[in-house]
């Protein structure tokens, strides 16, 4: 475990801090003109479809306040769905509905959301309540993700996802994020979600943390966190590596979910991915970033970049 009060120890472990991330990687490599490719979830989805990158199915988009009530026409053939702001961040404004009932719409928590709350939520999205900078937004409605059975008992009231840091097209560090009661069903480590470091070479769990402290069992379900093996791992890595060409961003975070029917799907991308992935893995990112920077020639194909990452970033 890191001793976060000791900067010398952190440096010796190759841990990257926020300033170094911002200036040496995000500021140096990511062209700001390309940020809308990932900051706008609707644009990300459009680019993904154009680049044959798998994403959750799009049910529809609500763009204007006078069209808000039309959402129920879009939803009439869908038992479950997800409503999210196109320009939201940190999971804010995302409403996941598992089932449509006579009383309303059922959330994972068991709460029933009535129709008028659906309308109010979408209106708030359009008004920019959840968007970056409070700018006007659009509401994106997606098909419900049915997460893979391998995650049964591993996530509380939320969909588990895999965060990968991709640099110059090489997937170089990964973690599984699991919702908890403390995180209110969100996969946000700062709110109490569990982070599980995943070996790039194999897709196997290495270690797990909650609130920066090592744990072995999920705090709500008691399920072991140390024997997780993510299947379709190479396919998942290939999907994340392809996000480099899709977005044009050399340094990015790719959030991927495993759907039980469709396999890996890109949920969203991030031009400023957080650093908690280092805590989950018990190691710093700098050695791997510097390794990629030192390559004389980068591998042109996605498949070769994935194979190189698995061979050289094994733990």
Provide a descriptive summary of the structure in words.
β8 and β9 form a beta hairpin. α7 (233-247) packs across α10 (302-312). This protein is 28% helix and 23% strand. The protein folds into 2 domains: 13-37 and 149-312, D-amino Acid Aminotransferase, Chain A, domain 1, CATH 3.30.470; 57-143, Dna Ligase, domain 1 (2-Layer Sandwich). The radius of gyration is 19 Å and the shape is globular. The two termini are 16 Å apart. It is built from 10 helices and 14 strands. The mean pLDDT is 92. It is α+β, with helices and mostly antiparallel strands and 315 residues long.
Please give the structural blueprint.
Elements: H1 7-12, H2 18-29, H3 36-39, H4 41-50, E1 58-62, H5 71-75, E2 81-85, E3 95-97, E4 99-100, E5 105-106, E6 112-113, H6 115-126, E7 139-143, E8 161-167, E9 170-178, E10 194-198, E11 205-210, E12 213-215, H7 233-247, E13 251-259, E14 263-270, H8 277-281, H9 286-293, H10 302-312
Antiparallel strand pairs: 1-7, 2-3, 2-7, 4-5, 5-6, 8-9, 8-13, 9-10, 10-11, 11-12, 13-14
Structure characteristics:
10 helices, Dna Ligase, domain 1, four-stranded antiparallel β-sheet, 14 strands, 315 residues, 28% helix, D-amino Acid Aminotransferase, Chain A, domain 1, seven-stranded antiparallel β-sheet, globular, 2 domains, alpha+beta
